[in-house]
Each structure stands twice: as structure tokens, then as C-alpha cells.
Amino acid sequence: MPLVKIANLYKNFGDTQVLRDISLDVHRGEIVSIIGRSGAGKSTFLRCINGLEPIQSGRIMVDGVDVGAADTDLRRLRQRVGFVFQSYNLFPHLSVLDNITLALRIVHGMDSSRSAGIAADVLRKVGMEDKKAAFPDQLSGGQQQRVAIARSLAMNPQLMLFDEITSALDPELIKEVLSVLENLAQGGMTMILVTHEIGFARKVSDRVVFMHHGMIWESGAPEEFFHNPKTEELATFLQSVI
Amino acid sequence: MRTFDFIEVLQQLLTAAKWTVALSCVALIGGGLLALVLTAAITGPFRPLYWMGRAGIQFIQGTPLLMQLFLFYFGLPLFLGVNISAWAVACITLIIFTSSYLAEIWSSSIRAIPAAQWEAASSLGLCHLQQLRYVIVPQAVKIAIPPSVGFSAQVIKGTSLTSIIGFLELTRIGQAINNVTFKPFIVYSMVAGIYFLLCYPISFYSRKMERKLHAAG
Q1: A4-241 — its CATH code?
Q2: For a pLDDT cut of 70, what percent of chain A falls above it?
Q3: Interface ipTM
Q4: Chain B contact present for A50, CB below 8 A
Q5: Is the pLDDT of residue B215 over 70?
Q6: Domain total for chain B?
Q7: A103 closest CB neighbour out of B117, B124, B142
């Protein structure tokens, strides 16, 4: 059974339909990249998966939990689904350590030494173990994004969602973040990433999805997908970005 | 007409100023507590509470403090059927007045925190109250402190209006002294001077904090 099962998803913002009839299954350990033009609905789609956006119709199941159901405890779901934002969204009033341990302490009720131990582990994974005491505004964009990834990892998620996490970064900082993602991928984490890094998507993904006009226009394994696009729209898009 | 004894007048004014300070403290503490409730009402998810809170705040901000004093001074005995002292009316009116402005400042500070902070906190599994308590309020307080402190100088000056309903504070005593000494310019200069000495340190402190927080980004 797939970890994420999405069937016939529709989503409107007011009168504008932004997602139309989207169906997608993601299995445990799979890495799916979503590419497409701005405004194609990629980020909105990702935000629907952990319930940040309400949906109009269709069904999103994550690890057996119906995300759209009225009685679903979104808090429980979100403890199993990590979300990393384009703009990092670290808590500016907390140190790196406290950013990571906050949810462990108040959601999981851990004591501070246990949560600090987990924080040390995840910070090591993203290469930030020496910045525990720093505050977000003392870090570069790439460092902040690595801390944001560590903050999500600390919750021990089943699934990680990445929303254009390198788009706000200077080119020389993108690499350090992508290499963290690559390590995660090798560790077997299930990931769905919205990205503009076509080369990266090609390298790490098991499957690539092209979104266009709020629909899944084309999808497939990276080799076939990039070498042999079936639709005119994907071919044009790939030409414009590569 | 009595002879004008500067020291004696100053002593009487300073005694009266104690009541001005007392009323200001009651207004700020009581108003602050009420503002917490109001802020929770107008930033919370429950719509009817939002509309009730907004309506109350709009009414207080859209009418002069003097009229509010009259309404409570003449209205409370009418509706409650008991006579109530000028001190009690002054306290009630200023608490309500203060709370509406503080609630406005505090709720704006909360709204000034980007939606992304709420989203990040909820994505980590925090509930609404935990998001407020651990993520939003600590950041909003920093924004809210300078204007709140600055507003407290407005409250101190606002207490002078309670002289009209007969509360014996600094302005009222100044009027009484003038009635027997006939030296309005000197007496009211002294009264104004005392208000200035009460308010200036507060606005100075507020500006200093604003600069400091601004520099801290």
C-alpha cells in the first residue's frame, strides 16, 4: 500500500481552479520531484498534502490517514509529515537548538536533555552541529535552510515535503542544501519535492511529475521523462529551463 | 483672596498628583488585563467574539473620553440604581478606554507576525494555543512594547478629564487653587509641569526602546 495516495483532487482559490483532478501515489522510500512553471499549482498541491490548504474534493491519504476528513487530527498527521518551506520560516526569537527542540518538548513532552540529544543528531546530519547556539539571523540562507530541514527531521517523519527549498538561495549556497537532500535520499526517506533544480530532480528522483494548468500533465521515470517527453508542453518547458 | 504661597500650592498639587498617578495605575493594570481578554477575542478563531470585541473597540475609539465619562457618570446610577463615586466612575471608564487601545495595539502586533510563522509552527504539530504561546506572542511582544508604553502617557494625560465629573486629581485641585489665588497662569503652569514630569520619562523610555528594538531588527 502506498504511503501517500491522492485521488481526484480538486482545489479552488475563490473562483479560480488551481488543482484539477490530481491523482498520485507515492510509495515508501520513493522520491518524487514535481516540476513546472510558476503558477502551475505545484506548491499548492504540496501544501494540500499536509493540510495547510483545504481541498474542495478528492481524497488525500497519508499513511492511512484521510487528510481532508473533518475529524482528522491534523496535528497528529503533521507530526509524521515534515514540511520545509522556501523561506525557511525558522523562529527568529529562538536559537538553532530551541528551534529544533521546541516541538519535541511541547508536542512530544520530551525533557530538555533528550530533545537536545536528538537535536545534536539531526544537526550533524545537515552539517550544522557547531551552530547550536546561533540565532537564525546570524546564519546564511543556506545554513538557515539546513537548520529548517533538521527541525523537520527531528520529528522523525515518515514523509518529507520540500517546497522549492533552494529558490531563495544564492547559487553558491544551493549546493550545500542539495547535498543534504541527497544524503536523506540515500538514507531511504520518502520525499516529495517541488523544485526548479532540473538537474537535481533528474539525479535523485525515482519519478518526475510535470504540472501544467493545475493538472499532472506528464510523469515518468527520469531517464524517459527527460529524454523523451511525450507532450509538446513538457518538451517546450524543458527547452526553456535546460 | 489668599496670598500666593508657592511652597504650599506645590505641596497641594503634589498631593493631588498622587491621585492622578493612582488612577493611571488602576487604568493601566485593569485596562491591560481587560485588553488581554479583548485581544484573545479579536485574534481568536471564534467569529461572534471577534465582532463583539471589534464593536466595543470601535465605540470607545470613536467617542471622546469626556463623553464616556459622562455616560458612565450619569448612566451607571440610572441603570444600577445606586450612586457611585467619582473615583469608581473614573476607574471604570479609564479601564475600558485603556483596554480598547491596548487591545488594538496588541492584536495588530500579533497580525504583524507573518503567516509563515503560524504555518511553520502548525507543520511541526503545535496546536493553535501552542503556536500563539511559543511562536507568535514572543515575537509580537517585542513589537507591542514601545507603542504600549507610549500609550500609557496618553492615559496619564487622559485622567485630567475626570476633573469634570468632580474627581479630585491634579487638574481639579489646580482649578480649586486658582479659584482662591486668582493666579491662573502660574497655577496651570505648575499643573502642566507636573504632568510633563510624569509623562516625559515614559515617552523618552518608549522612544529609546523603539530605537533599540529597531536596531535589533
Answers
A1: 3.40.50.300
A2: 100
A3: 0.92
A4: yes
A5: no
A6: 1
A7: B124
